[in-house]
Design goal:
- The chain contains five helices and 35 strands.
- The chain is mostly beta strands.
- The strands form seven sheets. Strands 23, 24, 25, 26, 27, 28, 29, 30 and 31 form a nine-stranded mixed β-sheet that branches.
- The longest helix has 15 residues.
């Protein structure tokens, strides 16, 4: 039946230019609400994982052949990822990796989520745009928003941006879901449903404060917010060149109605973070924090409120335990913990008495940070800092891999049971006299999806045959496939 269906799809597609036919077996999403696990994978019904089979560096694309070649390995894949994979061992691809759609689905700007029986994902744009010289050129830094049924059916391009996407979130307000993106200086809203309605809700935007997309499995994540988006735009007066500064605007997500709530002549404000309805913004190199629900929502962004940090901050995360305990963020290239009612405190992360360096914070759940380097992924519990005990925190290695093989970027997923990340194939110890085993040790330059179980301690596994990771992707090298 499946072969017949594929043949019929092919025949119909030639004549009718169908948007897509089923490529994998149908499943029913048992969750009626949004499923978001991070920007690289989505877990449906705690059993089916949708993900980019490999990471594609879209910044290196020069022509459409580069896209097509990457799509041969970086397609949207599906795997029935139960507790036990059908793999030879942790270093081999499992059986039954399926191709859902043949689009590059995990890349420098990737974003992925499921709603109902549809999966949504960004791909690098393939359309040509006119440059300053009037020539049509490729712009792979721009993005195309796709969606398809969970079985690969009804694949459709919903929108192609005309600039790079710098922020994107999916937000629920009332009974509706909205995807909101900042592409260049355009703030665009998509009302999600059986039909997707798109509206450009603001232009000439210089910064925006959006709540984070809700992650059900991440402690402290919430879909509760006041329904208002805050953004800035530059003050302009064509008749007066001395006019400068910012306007801060409040925009209702459901109606698009907006009102000015801050800024003014000579006041240059930039929005740098938002956690639920608390917005962080900078003025003159310093950061301020404002609860936008104060005074029944009749608030103003100004420079007279309490200063939060003496520096401009970025990458803000909430620390949570029954309630918001405070925030961590980056300032002057350092990790800062700012507990409610206390002053900011620089945090030093240690592993085996050595400073952890050149790391990226992936996400925070509760009071635990997940961070990645190119050779390991660590967790760090900030409870002792929150209790006032020093500035140093000892990390646990969740997984350790060969040097410089973990992808050096924030591409991950987290479903509460596993952390998913991209890394290159690990070398396999072989007997040099065994040619068959030697062939199995082949590696390549591609980054494939791995998973590691939450709570794993890689150090405790050293010396045993067990490994802290499992390979999930179907590799380019067939010698790494499970026969």
């Amino acid at each position: 039946m499946k072969k017949t269906t594929k043949l019929l799809c092919g025949l119909l597609g030639v004549g009718l230019l169908l948007t897509g036919c089923a490529t994998v077996g149908a499943i029913k999403n048992n969750d009626s609400e949004l499923i978001y696990n991070g920007n690289s994978a989505v877990m449906i019904n705690d059993s089916y994982l949708y993900y980019g089979n490999s990471f594609a560096d879209s910044s290196a694309f020069e022509n459409d052949n580069d896209y097509k070649n990457s799509a041969k390995l970086s397609y949207l894949a599906r795997l029935e990822a139960g507790a036990t994979l059908s793999a030879k061992n942790e270093d081999f691809s499992p059986k039954n990796v399926e191709t859902v759609t043949k689009e590059v689905s995990v890349h420098n700007k990737s974003f992925m989520f499921a709603l109902g029986d549809y999966i949504y994902y960004l791909t690098p744009n393939r359309k040509k745009f006119e440059n300053e010289d009037g020539k049509l050129v490729q712009q792979y830094g721009y993005s195309t928003l796709y969606r398809s049924k969970l079985n690969g059916d009804k694949k459709k391009s919903l929108y192609t941006t005309s600039a790079e996407v710098s922020q994107i979130e999916v937000l629920k307000y009332g009974k509706k879901y909205y995807l909101v993106m900042l592409a260049g200086t355009d703030l665009i809203r998509f009302e999600l449903g059986s039909k997707v309605k798109r509206t450009t809700i603001a232009k000439d935007v210089t910064s925006v404060a959006l709540p984070e997309t809700y992650e059900k499995k991440r402690v402290g994540s919430t879909d509760k917010w006041n329904g208002n988006i805050y953004y800035t735009k530059a003050l302009k007066d064509e008749d007066n060149s001395s006019v400068s500064g910012s306007q801060v605007m409040k925009l209702a997500i459901s109606t698009g109605d907006e009102v000015e709530v801050g800024g003014g002549q000579g006041i240059n404000i930039s929005l740098v973070g938002r956690e639920e309805d608390v917005v962080f913004y900078t003025y003159d190199g310093e950061t301020y924090k404002l609860d936008t629900n104060e005074n029944d929502g009749n608030i103003r962004f100004s420079i007279s409120v309490d200063r939060y940090s003496s520096s401009e901050i970025s990458d803000v995360y909430t620390l949570y335990s029954n309630d918001v305990l405070g925030y961590i963020y980056t300032a002057n290239s350092a990790l800062i913990c700012h507990q409610n009612g206390a002053s900011e405190k620089s945090v030093t992360l240690k592993y085996n008495s050595t400073d952890v360096e050149n790391y990226k914070v992936l996400f925070v759940t509760g009071r635990t940070i997940y961070l990645s380097t190119t050779s390991a992924i660590y967790t760090a519990d900030l409870s002792q800092i929150l209790n006032g005990n020093g500035k140093e925190v000892n990390c646990t290695a969740l997984v350790k891999m060969n040097d410089n093989t973990i992808y050096d970027g924030n591409r991950y997923a987290f479903d509460g049971n596993y952390l998913y990340y991209y890394a290159q194939l690990q070398e396999i110890e072989t007997d040099e006299e065994d040619e068959e085993e030697e062939s199995e040790a082949k590696t390549d330059d591609n980054y494939y999806l791995y998973r590691t179980k939450v709570g794993t301690n890689a150090d405790e596994l050293e010396g045993s045959s067990a490994k802290a990771y499992e390979l999930l992707s179907l590799t380019k090298n067939s010698d790494r496939h499970t026969k």
